[in-house]
Amino acid sequence: MLTRPRRREQSVARQVLVLQLIAVLVLVVTALALATYDARNDIRASARDEAISVATAVARSPIVQEARETPDPAALLQPFAESVRVDTGVDFVVIMDRDRTRWSHPNPVQLGKTFIGNLGGALEGEVYTEEYVGTLGPSIRAIVPVFASTGGTDPPVVALVAVGITLTQLDDLLVDEFADIVVAAVAVLVVGVVGAWLISQRLRRQTHGMGEREITRMYEYYSAVLHAVREGLLLIDLEGRVQLVNDEARRLLGLPDDVVGRSLDDLGLPPALVAAAAGDKGADEVYVTGDHVLVASSSAAFWDGKEVGAVVTLRDHTELQAVTGELDTVRGLTESLRAQTHEAANRLHTVVSLIEMGRPDDAVDFVTDELKVAQMLTDRVVAAVGDPVVAALLLGKSAEAAERGISLTVTGELPGSFDLASPRDLVTVLGNLVDNAIDAVAGSAEKRIEVHLEGSPTHARVVVGDSGPGLTADEATHALERGWTTKVDAADGHGLGLALVSQVARRLGGGVTIGRSALGGAELVVVLGEQPGGESR
């Protein structure tokens, strides 16, 4: 069975062009009709005024009064009326007696006959106009009274003057004006057609010659793809305003429903992320925002060879970052165990050598002293921390610190059953704080770190102080920002530790305070949950 190929639908530009041409044509025809109607009314009003003016001038002429008193008024008035008619261009000037007897007329045959038409209030001294069909055909006429020259406040009407302009003459004038109107209408039509064509060409370029169904399908596909992508997606224009955003980006960044059209600066995002989205293009940059650790990639967006903004993709690495932190902790513990294994081998060789030398009592005393030191450290840490994961972390950090010649002491007590935070959160907080403290005291003459723990099942307070150089007020202000570090030669990935600590603290209803330690260096106080008394930090 053969199927007919589907005919490609007309483009939006072509449809708009046709509609615009129809609209322009209708407007021009309507304007032409209205202009013609207006010109017709103007011509007739002008003819009426002209007839009144001519009739009034004739009625006030002295010759009318003189001729009225002669036995044959027509002898004087007929030549006079004809000269006025020729000079003014009207079609007839009729001077008549009160009984309608004509004293003048363009057709001499009509002299002495009765005037045809209405007089209105002319016999009472009023000016009367009308459109009437007389002996010369349809005309617009004005009838003006002739008052007696006897004087007085209310002179009587002794004669009448009728002046008219035939509609044929008015139609000839209208035809002349209609030609000018048609020329103007054609000019407007040409301008309208050219304008519609230019608009159509611009619309064709912007829509790529697609029809409305193709554009609708493209939008539906784009919307489906945009919301199906598992990564967060933002499209930022050149002025830093959000133009497109999908559901995942709203979730990761906590964006409001009315985010489209708003500036990035108004959304409360980290400054580094705002700078990256606005123009600092980069791939797989890590940012900490709210409760998430995000990996963001930004690249320029182009349309028809012109840059229109930036496309930012976001991936949630919160869980991965937490697992990575735990992996780093395990690696640290492994290194510590390796170092302790090496040290234990040295001690074992010492014990063997003492026995071979025939000094078993000295060997027993040496082993006993070593066991006491190790047991004291283990007992102190286990007594301070009930959770085995956190205790193992602190034991590993203590061994690492001892290997590097650093004195690490743990005081206070943290309950083993902590309802507010998971061991992973505590490992993130303690691991990053202790690591930073170890790095801070590495170059100091006195290398000491103090860790103080206190809390309850719903509250924890972790204090880590060191004997390092400390932080200035400006450094303390930026210390919790993503990517900030005091390491001059820091590699990519540094500067996240304190940002992650701050993120955990905020998520659990607490906060981070940076101050000066009693040892002389920096002191970081992390509060998780509500403090006793109901206040949170």
From TrEMBL:
SMART domains per the UniProt record, alphabetical: HATPase_c, PAS
InterPro entries hit by this protein: 2C_sensor_his_kinase, HATPase_C_sf, HATPase_dom, His_kinase_dom, PAS, PAS-like_dom_sf, sCache_3, Sensor-like_sf
Gene3D superfamilies linked to this entry: Histidine kinase-like ATPase, C-terminal domain, PAS domain
EC number(s) on file: 2.7.13.3
Catalytic activity: ATP + protein L-histidine = ADP + protein N-phospho-L-histidine
Keyword vocabulary terms for this entry: ATP-binding, Cell membrane, Kinase, Membrane, Nucleotide-binding, Phosphoprotein, Transferase, Transmembrane, Transmembrane helix, Two-component regulatory system
UniProt enzyme class: transferase
Domain of life: Bacteria
Transmembrane segments: 181-200
Membrane topology according to the record: Multi-pass membrane protein
Residues covered by the PAS domain: 218-255
Major place of residence: membrane
Name of the protein: histidine kinase
